[in-house]
Amino acid sequence: MVRSVLAVLGFSLTCISALSLFSPAWFQTPTFSFGVLTYCSWPQGDSWNQNCWVTFRSLEDIPDFAWKVSAVLLLGGWLLLAISAILLLSWALAPKGLCPRRSNGPFLGVQLAAATTTIVGLLVFPISLGSPFAKEVCEASSRYYGGKCRLGWGYMTAILSAVLASLLPIISWPGVTKVQGQTILFSRDTERIILMPEMNK
User: Fold this and answer.
1) Which residues, 6 or more positions from 184, have their beta carbon under 8 angstroms from its beta carbon?
2) How far apart are CA 164 and CA 11, in angstroms?
3) CA 145/CA 164 separation, integer angstroms
4) Mind listing the pLDDT tens digit for each residue in 93-111?
5) Rounded distance between C-alpha atoms, residue 153 and residue 168, angstroms
6) Model pTM greater than 0.85?
7) Could you give the CA distance from residue 152 to residue 55 in angstroms, rounded to a whole number?
8) What is the dihedral of CA 25, 9, 195, 192, to 10 degrees?
9) pLDDT at site 119
């Protein structure tokens, strides 16, 4: 049961992270918005008539070095999160006889790497507000200052996804608690609580 929930959470976070990564709504003005990989423009007062066909197809197209670093880190974090979700799913669907030792396996490290990479990418991206591209769009923007641009839902969703991805390894950590000379183990295989006397050395 726990494995299935972790697999569903892993795939949900992968989808949310992909949605925010490809969203053009990280920073917005009344007529323009941009994200890591795309940007949109529209006439003043007519936000329903958006032109979002402009994407950065390669690293050479991205206008700033910090932006490029952020894009690589965020895409890498997303790929690690997707690999973690696939590992979680295979771990959840594998029969108990096939995997007799039910530890957290390699996906715990992959989840931590995905969360760390994504968080670093999110911290690096606002440095690109000092680029000529962002200064033209946001007027008087600088590093970590948006000028006339405001945060959009894409960046906020990416932050939420990174926070939840960093909590996923904590949720999947095996539960061990000490209470008055006894160790309580929460066994996920048998879904029972086991009391073990503490051994003095």
Assistant:
1) 176, 177, 178, 193, 194, 195, 196
2) 12
3) 26
4) 776 666 544 555 667 788 8
5) 22
6) no
7) 18
8) 160
9) 93
122-155 pLDDT tens trace:
999 888 888 888 888 888 888 888 888 888 888 9
| Cα angle value 129/159/7 (rounded, 5°) | 145
Buried b (16+ CB within 10 A) or exposed e, 6-34: bbebbbebbebbeebbebbbbbbbeebbb
Q: Which residues contact 183 (CB under 8 A, 6 or more apart)?
A: 176, 177, 195, 196, 197, 198
3-class secondary structure for 83-132? Answer: HHHHHHHHHHHCCCCCCCCCCCCCHHHHHHHHHHHHHHHHHHHHHHHHCH
Q: What CA–CA distance (Å, rounded) separates 198 from 201? A: 10
pLDDT-based confidence at residue 53 (cuts at 50, 70, 90): low
Question: Which two three-digit tokens encode residue 70?
Answer: 């952020």
Contact at 8 Å (CB) between 94 and 127? no
What lies within 8 Å, CB to CB, of 197 at 6+ separation is 181, 182, 183
Q: What's the CA gap between 189 and 117, in Å, rounded? A: 31
Of 18 and 193, the one with more pLDDT: 18
- How many residues comprise the chain? 201
